[in-house]
Amino acid sequence: MTDYFAAVARFDAEIAETKGAEQAFKALQTLTQEIVGAKLFTYMTVDMTNELSRRVYTSDAANYPTSGTKPLHYDHWFDTVHKARQYFIANSIEAIAEVFPDYPLIQSLGCESVVNMPVILGGELVGTLNMLDVAGYYTAERVELIRRYVAVPAKLAAMVAAKG
Questions:
Q1: Is residue 74 within 8 Å of residue 48, measured between CB atoms?
Q2: InterPro entries given for it (predicted)?
């Protein structure tokens, strides 16, 4: 059984010494792995002025590099994450395919479920934490663990990353 408090304490000690986005999100990835797990872990920033998102951290640089930007798409996912500021949860590749055109790559990596968590600071959505794993993985219980033990550390990692 995972000792959630110990995992958060390790994150706290690590983030206290962290400088820059790479280290901050690596610490968050480690915490997330301990709390809930994720085969693929990424963090995207959002620029609403220019309607662009940018992947600034990835656990799989070969398939999901951190270079470049992509335009925002105004769809069900956008409405859920950006407008309603709710978690987007899909537990099948079919549900993922409805909003992510790269679903064949996602599936090829053994991922068929996703949680996209909005990260909000100062009333503004600054990014999304994205966790992917096998089909059916993100149960209500696992999503609750994310809410309890990952959401606040994600905000802290985003702040550390923005500080540079």
A1: no
A2: GAF-like_dom_sf
Confidence of residue 10 (pLDDT cuts 50, 70, 90): very high
For 20-78, the pLDDT digits (tens) are 999 999 999 999 999 999 999 999 999 989 999 999 999 999 999 998 788 898 999 99
**Beta-sheet strands, E only, within 9-134:** 40-47, 52-58, 70-71, 88-90, 113-121, 124-133
Map out the domains of the chain as residue ranges: 4-163
Cβ density class 108-130: b for 16+ within 10 Å, e for less:
eeebbbbbbbbbeeeeebbbbbb
- Architecture of the domain whose range is 4-163: 2-Layer Sandwich (3.30)
